[in-house]
Amino acid sequence: MLEKKPLRTQFRIIFILIIVTSIMATIVTYCTGFVIYGIIQYKKMYPSNYYEKKIPDIKNYIRKYGIVILNPKEKISLDKVIPTQGMKYQVLDENAHIIYGTGYKIINSKEELYTKINTDISIGNEYIKIIHILDSEGKAAGAVSLSYTLKNHYMSSLDKIWIIPLYIVIIFSPFIYIAVFTGVFSKKFERNISKPVNMLIDASKKIEQKDLDFNIDYSADNELGKLCQGFNEMKSELKDSLRAQWRIEQERQEMVEALAHDLKTPFSIIKGYVESLLDGNYKEEQKLIKYLNVIDENTNRGSELIKEMLYAAELESQDIEICTTELDIYSFMKRKKENYEMLRGDKNIEFKLNINIEKNDKKTYSVDAYKLERILDNIIFNSIRYTPENGQITINVDKYYESIKFTIQNTGKEFSSKDLSSLFNKFYKGDGSRNSKNGNAGLGLYIVKKLVEIQGGSIRAFNSESGGACIEFVL
Known about the structure:
By secondary structure, the chain is an alpha+beta fold. It has 13 helices and 14 strands.
């Protein structure tokens, strides 16, 4: 739980841990080194007075063989008696001349030789012993000088290679342990800090990418924990603020796109009639008046649509009033068919209108004509867009119990499974064939569905058995 503590406390604890563990490890190392030294002292090393204890044996050997030792051929035999790996020697004649041996010259004259015979000489940390050689008459015929040091000696050079570094490591182990444990515990301290810091860095990058769907999962009663908590709170406030801002912007965009979508139909009708007049269809007064009435009607409708900029939002935010009137369904649908024929342009689409109501049934129905017109306009406009040249759009009007059922079928592309499940969703644009550049923002059929439901009706989309896409609604 160290990472949950305040940073100052973490630093102090880690510092204490470094010191304590270093001391404990040093004690263990020194004890181990002492044990190792006790084990190898007489197996891998000679004691400091080892060579000094060899002098009596060497002296007896010299006394025994006497002047024979002065023969250079005896070097091999003398080397076996004198441990040359830790002791140097020289065999001198009576004039202090070196006959054979090892090491540097110690006695420089005959007089010096005789004055130092059977004496101990100390030069620095080296000790020298002069042993005289007697002939058969008991006269001094020469001498042997032995030099050695009083320190531990290794039995072999191989042992020296690994024992000396071992002792160095043991001696300097406190500093080694401090460095090692500082690295170990500092990495732990670094991980404790880097975890929340990396979370904060990732969170900052997500905010930069406008991604606020995240949470910093780090809780601790320390500075970093409070920082992460504060960052989460800041993110939540920012998310709420941006959500509100985005909602306002989205609603504004939705309203603008819905307006653009709905204005396209009346303006297209106006354009169709104006082009017809420009082609010369104004010489007959009756036709001129009819065309001008249609233009005036759609101009007024376009003006009304501009005033209804908040219409799409109103469909969701409050109850919409239903303004029902008695509508002559025959006249209404024939007029709409003529309007739609003006919209087909160069595609030469055939419009078929089938009103399947018995003669003895009533011809007028109490409906909201404006909303019905808007529903039909949106559906037919989409049908015209997706119906190929020389295609056909069929409008069927049937009595459905005490209601009226409208079925619009075109010979264009059928609905995909995705279309059928999402067609009436807000801003649904199908397989990409719809686009806002053409005034399509995916609001047309959404508005249709809302208007149908507001009037207590139902709507569905399906594919006809004979081919083509169908939309059916009941009012």
